[in-house]
Q: What sequence folds into this?
């Protein structure tokens, strides 16, 4: 099919790039406009807080595909900001005055890193970690012996803390909650993660928050004074703020689409405007476990939703039904979560010979709705793969068998 209108994708990150690739693989021969504000071709984000910071990976190795592949597929990478769009006329309006007429549109706008609204938050040396450029700026400052303060004890914050320790930095994590990782994992797993970081030399301050960052007169080291809410003062060469993201749903909201802390989509990832789809961090989609909706900020979600959205842009009506799943690498350990553990009413703990633990969450009908595991990556991977398959199946299961490490998970499938 040839048309003057293009398949337009707003957001040239993981979702946008994979969707553009899928459009070609699915047979679209018309134009594809992949529009993003960053100058970089699509790349994966997980290495930003890990391999890029430790020096184990280079920026070029984070690319979603070889640069030549985009040219071979005639995918136009437009470096620009989309100011607005008209879902009726099917026109995108760019900030530089250009317009793009589209056949179908995918909003893969991701999110904006949350920032602190306190004195000194814009001081040099205080930054978030969201882009390749952010990682490059931070990596250059992670030198042995430097003091690093990480604000936020979630996944990104802990990954940065681990990477900084690998580089020989002195690290303090400041977390406002009573424990690490919020409600994302069971409390025992959060405690195990805290113990792992403490064993690796990270200082953790719970129930604590920064009140100001200041470069004080006479400090010949050029460091930042980080004043906490209890009056204590930390000294930092670098401050990384990792307190989550806000979904970038501004242009969708302005265009009149249904938005609720993200862009609302149906099971096909189509928005309230016909021919306009959304996927990735910004999409709020139906849960496979009930009538509620969820939003996922994960590699797996980006990878799988991009492909479904692209096929549906071409007229398919595929329903998205992937099981939520994510992982986090910290030192030689890995944390994985599959499904929606928060939906469980009963938790079963399985302890492996390696000391790793998997927490299985069952709902009121005895169905497995989530599994969370933490331990040595080498020991956890296979067991969590089987755990994911059990959650995927969604059938009632015997809790005593789950708890018994002598009963092979494979036998329960």
A:
């Amino acid at each position: 099919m040839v048309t003057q209108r293009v398949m337009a994708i707003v957001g040239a990150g993981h979702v946008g790039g994979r969707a553009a690739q899928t459009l070609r693989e699915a047979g679209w021969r018309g134009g594809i406009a992949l529009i993003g504000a960053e100058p970089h071709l699509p790349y994966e984000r997980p290495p930003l807080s890990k391999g890029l910071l430790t020096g184990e990976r280079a920026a070029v190795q984070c690319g979603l595909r070889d640069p030549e592949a985009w040219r071979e597929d005639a995918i136009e990478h437009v470096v620009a900001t989309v100011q607005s769009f008209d879902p009726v006329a099917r026109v995108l309006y760019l900030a530089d005055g250009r317009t793009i007429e589209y056949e179908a549109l995918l909003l893969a706008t991701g999110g904006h890193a949350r920032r602190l609204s306190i004195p000194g938050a814009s001081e040099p040396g205080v930054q978030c970690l969201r882009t390749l450029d952010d990682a490059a700026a931070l990596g250059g400052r992670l030198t042995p012996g430097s003091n690093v303060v990480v604000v936020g004890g979630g996944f990104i914050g802990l990954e940065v803390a681990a990477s900084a320790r690998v580089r020989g930095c002195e690290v303090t994590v400041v977390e406002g909650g009573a424990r690490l990782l919020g409600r994302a994992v069971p409390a025992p797993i959060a405690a195990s993660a805290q113990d792992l970081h403490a064993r690796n030399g990270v200082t953790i301050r719970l129930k604590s928050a920064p009140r100001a960052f200041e470069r004080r007169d006479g400090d010949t080291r050029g460091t930042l004074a980080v004043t906490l809410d209890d009056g204590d003062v930390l000294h930092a060469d670098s401050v990384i703020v990792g307190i989550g993201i806000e979904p970038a749903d501004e242009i969708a909201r302005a265009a009149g689409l249904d938005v609720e802390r993200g862009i609302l989509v149906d099971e096909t990832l189509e928005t309230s405007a016909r021919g306009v789809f959304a996927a990735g961090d910004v999409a709020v989609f139906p849960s496979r476990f009930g009538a509620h909706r969820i939003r996922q900020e994960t590699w797996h979600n980006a990878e799988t939703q991009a492909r479904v959205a692209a096929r549906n842009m071409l007229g398919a009506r595929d329903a998205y039904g992937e099981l939520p799943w994510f992982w986090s690498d910290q030192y030689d350990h890995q944390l994985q979560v599959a499904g929606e553990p928060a939906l469980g009413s009963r938790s079963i703990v399985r302890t492996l010979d390696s000391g790793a633990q998997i927490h299985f969450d069952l709902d009121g009908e005895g169905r497995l709705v989530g599994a969370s595991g933490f331990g040595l990556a080498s020991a956890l991977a296979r067991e969590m793969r089987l755990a994911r398959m059990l959650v995927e199946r969604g059938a009632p299961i015997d809790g005593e068998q789950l708890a018994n490490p002598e009963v092979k998970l494979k036998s329960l499938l």
